[in-house]
Amino acid sequence: MGGMIFSFLVPWRLLQRASLKEECEEVFLVLTMAAVALSQSGFIAPGASKAKASAASIFAILDQKSKIDPSDDSGITLQNVKGEVEFCHITFKYPTRPNTIALVGESGSGKSTIISLLQRFYDPNSGHITLDGINIQKLQIKWLRQQMGLVSQEPVLFNDTIRANIAYGKEDAAEAEIVAAAELANAHKFICGLHKGYDTRVGERGVQLSGGQKQRVAIARAILKNPTMLLLDEATSALDAESEKMVQDALDGVMVDRTTIVVAHRLSTIKSVHVIAVLKNGAIVEKGSHQTLLNKGGPYASLLALHTSSKLST
Fold first, then answer.
1. DSSP conformation letters of the chain
2. Residues of the chain with pLDDT > 70: what percent?
3. Bigger pLDDT: 13 or 156?
4. What mean pLDDT, rounded, does the chain reach?
């Protein structure tokens, strides 16, 4: 009997020792994993401090109140807008680039700044801009911007249908108005050739469309808005020759009976406008039609010759 008890106790003690060993191994594994995690957390600390500083600067920007509040309903509106725009002794510098003053003809000189000033994204440091003889700072901002239609070099298209992107130009636009605007923009034909027509989604930033197609959709949106003033900021500079011709044909039709301000990289796109103003060293050095300025042989003729030689060399 004693032998049987002894034979039973021995394996039980062995089993206890085996269980203790497993527990020790588990504890050791947990401690090892904790030590590795702690050692790796040291690499996170610099990133966390950078993230904290970045978040602080972001919230500082978000909390900053703009001097020009688009939601401000104060200011006057005009019953009948002629679209007569005048820049009177304007000087301007960007808050983040205080040394930028001159408006000249070369790239990056500030041609697009004129568009931003007219839309009151900025106010000039001195001088003033008038619309039909009224200082635009006295006009209601929302109303002022509603008078303008902008077609930029890189149009902003949303990840939605072509119909919706055109309809952003006017609230509650009817289908017939959207189609009519697309026809005037020389876009209706290519839209109908798409698989879903006006219900085709353009993708993020219009990635599903070509450059010329995106521009014509943007032009259709501007047409639907029926603005008093049309602002064209390098609208064809990023297009190939074929797309440029189609877009330019659309723009030529839209410019009729409305004030149009064109910022152009390609001088060929402004030959038909009524007045060309050549900027140099912050001042207008000459003004007139394409042929008049060409005959003068001044700065405009020099720019045109430079543009032509550059085009031939490429």
1. -HHHHHHHHHHHHHHHHHHHHHHHHHHHHHHHHHHHHHHHHHHHHHHHHHHHHHHHHHHHHHHPPPSS-TT---SB--SS----EEEEEEE--BTTBTT-----SSTTSSHHHHHHHHTTSS--SEEEEEETTEEGGGB-HHHHHHTEEEEESS----SSBHHHHHHTTSTT--HHHHHHHHHHTT-HHHHHTSTTGGG-B--GGGTTS-HHHHHHHHHHHHHHH--SEEEEESTTTTS-HHHHHHHHHHHHHHTTTSEEEEE-SSGGGGTTSS-EEEEETTEEEEEE-HHHHHHHTSHHHHHHHHHHHHHHH-
2. 77
3. 156
4. 77
